[in-house]
Amino acid sequence: MKKVIVIGGGFAGLAAASSLAKKGFDVTLLEKNCDIGGRARKLTISGFTFDMGPSWYWMPDVFENYFKEFGSVVSDHYNLIRLDPSYAVFFSKEEVMRVPANLNEFYALFEKYEPGSSVQLRKFLADAEYKYNISMSDFVNKPSLSLLEFMDFRILSAAVRMDLFKSISKCIKNHFTNTKLISLLEFPVLFLGAKPNETPALYSMMNYADIVLGTWYPMGGMHKIVEAMENIAKKQGVKIKTFERVEKINIVDGKAVSVVSNGVVIPADIVIGAADYHHVEQNLLEEKYRNYNEEYWKSRKMAPSCLMYYIGIDKKLEGLEHHNLFFDAPFDIHAEEIYDRPQWPSNPLFYATCASKTDDSVAPAGKENLVLLIPIAVDIEDTEEIREKYFNIMMDRLEHLTGQSIKQHVVVKMSYAINNFKEDYNSFGGNAYGLANILKQTAVFKPKLINKKVSNLYYAGQLTVPGPGVPPAIISGQVVAKEISKKFSN
Ligand SMILES: Cc1cc2nc3c(=O)[nH]c(=O)nc-3n(C[C@H](O)[C@H](O)[C@H](O)COP(=O)(O)OP(=O)(O)OC[C@H]3O[C@@H](n4cnc5c(N)ncnc54)[C@H](O)[C@@H]3O)c2cc1C
Q1: For residue 65, what are the domain limits?
Q2: Omega into 85 within 30° of 0, i.e. cis?
Q3: Least C-beta-crowded within 10 Å: which of 177, 222, 266, 304?
Q4: Are residues 202 and 238 in the same domain?
Q5: Domain annotation covers residue 143
Q6: Which of 470, 475, 476, 479 to mutate to test the pocket of ligand 1 (most atoms within 8 A of CB)?
Q7: End residue of a domain, out of 163, 195, 212
């Protein structure tokens, strides 16, 4: 059996490991932290359980397909519920939009803000559905090693309708004029890590994911997905080892022969770098074996980092939903301060997840579990004083917008930002969400999942294809596993 070493135990590493073990490879997964899950680890303090990273469960079909590959269904692993409302958007104290899960109610909401807009919305969503279906069936599962993969009549003719060269901002404004509806439809772009006017309209498929496929929640928290994937990996025979910080990948005659972890040499026939791509190349590989140099990485447009606060509140809060977006500040200025003039935002948008609104298990009885998040530029100064300043800004706004005292009820408080991303995940620039999804960094233009100089070294994770987010990270692991088994299976 060929020995595969997977470096990194996030979604991508877990998916790659399980898929290869199922195909008969002898797989060991090495994770530097004490827990697996990567950016989706959980944090437990004084009876509060926080999801440290992802909190939006979108594209449920991807999870269902993943579990199906291993002969199970989502409900074998966790209880998934659809959130309704999907989320609330706070435009001001007086104006809070609660976004309904029901599609007819969603159309009615649009009519309320812009008479006649539900007709436009139907057209917009039909187009978004087309893009979603084509992307999921024909694009995301491709290794994107060459443009030739896309030279097929069906794909080429579909590509015209995929709106690669128009911005999502333009596409939305062609359909709607109300600024609040425009903000609502531009919001999923936040996940994609680029400004709406630079994000291809292809990504209106995320609006389909949001509005039609819905926002879901696994009871117990997003970490339930990690637990399910860990169980599957173990069942497939993957050896999962934590506290294993890989320091080097050894190359002999153009082949990876071993990795060094905590000073111990571990032999390998195949190596997958499922930690941050930049870290794997720049820190674990000799310069002559790297696909990309430091200049290349500096020229990339990164998706944001973020400042987060994990907070326990000693009472129940009024007016909040499970997911809450605070759009009582201009989106454009905040986006400029992330991408064009990197600096701490002068007047930040932020969001708050209050999972205890849905799930009693994540906070002690009568208390609330709150995670606050501000997207920020990568690699800017990160100090306790700056974090505290933004904690106070968010608290003041929360108290004002929801009309209640909150700050004096904080009983648990922990911050997380750029320095933690670097320290915990070896993240390039302290990024949270990988590379920005602009056209120049899509598909064949992303860092390649194979190493061009080392014949048995591969990459998986949010910095390679198909991109950032939990579903794409899972798909990335599956795609790399398919490439490896094509090449190495007898
Ligand atoms: C705050 C935040 C919120 C998010 N919100 C959402 C959301 O709501 N919905 C969504 O779909 N996505 C969301 N995302 C994105 C999503 O979480 C990521 O895209 C995904 O988890 C990335 O998985 P990965 O496996 O590529 O990388 P990671 O999760 O980073 O896994 C890589 C692993 O490699 C390990 N590692 C690093 N260096 C080494 C080494 N030298 N040796 C051994 N191990 C090493 C790291 O410790 C880590 O465990 C969010 C991300 C963040 C940070």
Answers
A1: 3-40+58-72+221-300+436-488
A2: yes
A3: 177
A4: no
A5: yes
A6: 470
A7: 212
Q: What are phi and psi of 403, to 5 degrees?
A: 65, 45
Q: What is the pLDDT of residue 191?
A: 63
The CATH number of whichever domain residue 20 belongs to comes to 3.50.50.60
Task: Give the pLDDT confidence of 291-329 residue by residue, as tens digits.
Answer: 999 999 999 999 999 999 999 999 999 999 999 999 999
The pLDDT value recorded for residue 155 is 67
Burial class (CB in 10 A: 0-12, 13-18, 19+), 483: middle
* Biggest CA-to-CA distance, the chain: 68
Residue 195 pLDDT exceeds 90? no
Spacing, Cα 322 to ligand 1 middle (Å): 22
**Neighbouring C-beta atoms of residue 153, cutoff 10 Å:** 7
What are residue 412's DSSP bridge partners? Answer: 312
Q: In the predicted model, what is the mean pLDDT of residues 451-478?
A: 96
Same domain, 293 and 440: yes
- Cα gap 183→171, rounded to integer Å: 13
Q: Tell how far the Cα of 475 is from the centroid of ligand 1, in angstroms.
A: 14
Q: 326 C-alpha to center of ligand 1: Å?
A: 25
What's the rounded Cα separation, in Å, for the pair 245 and 7?
A: 9
Nearest to 390 by CA among 429, 347, 423: 347
**Number of domains comprising the chain:** 2
Average pLDDT over all residues of the chain: 94
Tokens in use for 54?
Answer: 């992802």
CA dihedral sign of residues 162, 164, 168, 173? negative
pLDDT tens digits along 64-108:
999 999 999 999 999 999 999 999 999 999 999 999 999 999 999
